[in-house]
Design brief:
By secondary structure, the chain is mostly helical. The chain is 65% helix and 3% strand. The protein has 3 domains: 145 residues, Oligopeptidase f, N-terminal domain (Butyryl-CoA Dehydrogenase, subunit A, domain 3, Up-down Bundle), CATH 1.20.140.70; 199 residues, Oligoendopeptidase f, C-terminal domain (Neurolysin, domain 3, Orthogonal Bundle), CATH 1.10.1370; 209 residues, Neurolysin, domain 3 (Orthogonal Bundle), CATH 1.10.1370. The strands form 3 sheets. It has a 3-stranded mixed β-sheet with strand order 4-6-5, sandwiched between helices. It has a two-stranded antiparallel sheet with strand order 1-2. Strands 3-7 form a two-stranded parallel ribbon. The chain is globular and about 75 Å long. The two termini are 32 Å apart.
């Protein structure tokens, strides 16, 4: 993509490099503020008035804002260049320091969760402290799973040398991997991009190379996964969680039965989703079955057009503006102020994410833009997150964070806005290709993520008894993924090691169902949008995003007359995809 300058964020606006003297000054400031906070509030929470608990939380939030900026700078510096030893050391230093401070401050959440109902009611009815009630309620829900204060402190303080160190090992190893491709070697992001290349031979070479290198490193990745799982099991068991999924559901503020309903609905619908679509796609490719590396192959083999960055920017902003100018205006700031790092390069994290930073600053987006339609969709997705994070920022650091299940709402909705914009502009011959691409994206977000979830579920259950060998992990992977993609995708031995590159399995176990939750939720919202007053809907949608973590899913969906408790809710979301597949087949 010549003459297509891609943006790179400038983290110097936080600190000027990892040797900035201000970093150590802020760490000393944090230590001082933390000790002052402890002396002022520790052991006194249960007797505080509404005004006092509000002042306490304001001071606590101020400390976390400074921590958040330090963490943002160190983690994003690391994501920008995982191969730089000094940056890695810096990231570890910040992690060590912050973990020590977190451990000292853990008393606040423990004491808040333990207050009696009389004190809680006083806070709930006080005009000053009632804004903090959503946070306080969440902490009170955790009471039954809390350990002694000393154990809680130890767990937090040890995290950088425990689970977090295994996450770091995974990230650094993944970033350092190089995949042979002809006469060159590619990064993980580059080799994954080749799996959607228009040349079938390129896809095959990329698939074989990806498999080979992951297999060569599978023993290390298997060890990491085993340790992460055992660590989770030990802590969950000591806390009293009854299932391997329960702690994640608590973090997501979602009931077990709602998640079970989602997983069950999608799993039962696989024959009408992936199985049906890949049968159609295999027929288009004049094959009985597709090789796994052809799963995301473009329908138009001659389509080599790359979308320039500036064009991608215009497409996304225009689509957002058509929905609501406020959304587009916020998204535009990411381009105008270089809050996006889009340049693929060695050592940089693969994939894409939006980092919320802290409300007093601004979010950042990382992606690896290579000019394909899917990259434009990824841009829309991450900008959706970014807009959501900006809007929710008005709630402040402690109340802006959104559960994972709702965090995907704005991102997936943003994708849908851009897709519909492109589809409406496309000529008839292009619509079939675009519809197929969108279906594939939705299948990747819903069906494939539920397949990932089922892999995690079976792996973690098996890991309770003993450590699993690489072959045993691969067997679980093949069994669950074959059901997820269906009989028209050939999953041969080269596919056995592909679990090893999925970062969510290591970073955040059981994260993946949130993607399916978000996609089905957005499908239901989209149907509502099509059949409602567009302006009214947009305003309600912005209210939903601005709420951040102050409301649960049932409260947020009520204005749209939707409920995740409804037995047909998930079926409605899934049916939107099956209807698209039917539409595609009639073209």
């Amino acid at each position: 993509m010549k003459k297509n300058k891609l943006p790179k964020w400038n983290l110097d606006e936080i600190y000027v490099g990892h040797n900035d003297p201000k970093i150590d000054k802020d760490l000393k400031k944090l230590s001082k503020l933390t000790n002052q906070f402890i002396n002022k509030w520790k052991g006194k929470i249960k007797n505080l008035s509404g005004k006092e608990i509000s002042n306490c939380l304001k001071e606590y939030e101020k400390i976390y804002e400074i921590m958040g900026l330090l963490s943002t700078h160190s983690s994003l510096s690391f994501a920008s260049n995982m191969e730089d030893v000094e940056v890695s050391r810096y990231n570890a230093k910040i992690s060590d320091n912050l973990s020590l401070l977190f451990s000292k401050l853990i008393f606040l959440s423990l004491e808040i969760s333990s207050v009696n109902n009389k004190v809680f009611k006083t806070w709930e009815n006080d005009k000053v402290s009632k804004r903090w009630i959503p946070l306080i309620k969440n902490l009170r829900k955790r009471k039954k799973y809390q350990l002694s204060p000393l154990v809680e402190e130890i767990l937090v303080e040890k995290s950088p040398t425990g689970r977090s160190s295994w996450v770091r090992l995974f990230d650094e190893t993944s970033a350092a991997l190089r995949f042979p491709y002809g006469k060159q070697t590619l990064t993980e992001a580059e080799i994954l991009n080749k799996l959607s290349d228009s040349n079938p031979e390129s896809r095959k070479i990329a698939g074989k190379s990806l498999s080979k290198i992951l297999k060569e490193n599978s023993r290390l990745f298997g060890m990491i996964l085993n340790v992460i799982s055992r660590d989770k099991y030990v802590e969950d068991s000591k806390r009293g969680f009854e299932s391997i999924l329960e702690s994640r559901n608590l973090d997501n503020d979602i009931e077990n039965k709602v998640v079970d309903s989602l997983v069950s609905t999608v799993s039962k619908k696989m024959p009408d989703l992936t199985h049906k679509y890949y049968k159609w796609k295999a027929k288009v490719f004049k094959k009985k079955k597709l090789d796994w590396w052809d799963r995301n192959a473009p329908l138009n083999h001659n389509e080599n057009t790359l979308i320039k960055w500036d064009d991608a920017k215009d497409i996304v902003l225009e689509a957002f503006n058509d929905f609501n100018p406020k959304i587009s205006k916020i998204a535009k700031q990411f381009f105008d102020n270089n809050w996006i790092d889009a340049e693929p390069r060695k050592g940089k994290a693969s994939g894409a994410f939006a980092h919320p930073s802290v409300p007093s600053h601004h979010p950042y987006i990382l992606m690896n833009y290579q000019g394909k339609v899917r990259d434009v969709m990824t841009l829309a997705h991450e900008l959706g997150h970014g807009v959501h994070q900006v809007l929710a920022g008005k709630q402040g650091y402690l109340l802006s964070d959104t559960p994972l299940t709702l965090a995907e709402t704005a991102s997936v909705f943003g994708e849908m806005l851009v897709f519909r914009k492109l589809l409406n502009k496309a000529e008839k011959s292009q619509k079939k290709i675009m519809l197929a691409n969108k279906i594939e994206d939705m299948l990747n977000t819903v069906a494939r993520q539920i397949g990932f979830h089922q892999f995690e579920n079976e792996f973690h259950k098996a890991r309770v008894a003993s450590e699993l060998t690489v072959d045993e992990i691969c067997d679980i992977w093949m069994k669950t993924q074959q059901h997820a993609v269906g009989p028209y995708i050939k999953l041969d031995n080269d596919y056995r090691s592909l679990w090893a590159y999925i970062p969510h399995f290591v970073h955040t176990p059981f994260y993946v169902y949130a993607y399916a939750f978000g996609d089905c939720l957005v499908n239901a919202l989209w149907n509502e949008y099509q059949n409602s007053d567009k302006s009214k809907f947009a305003n309600q949608y912005i209210d939903l995003l601005e709420a951040g973590g102050t409301k649960r899913h049932d409260e947020l969906l009520k204005p749209f007359s939707l409920s995740a408790y409804d037995n047909n809710f998930w079926a409605k979301g899934v049916n939107s995809i099956t209807n698209m597949i039917d539409e595609l087949e009639t073209l």
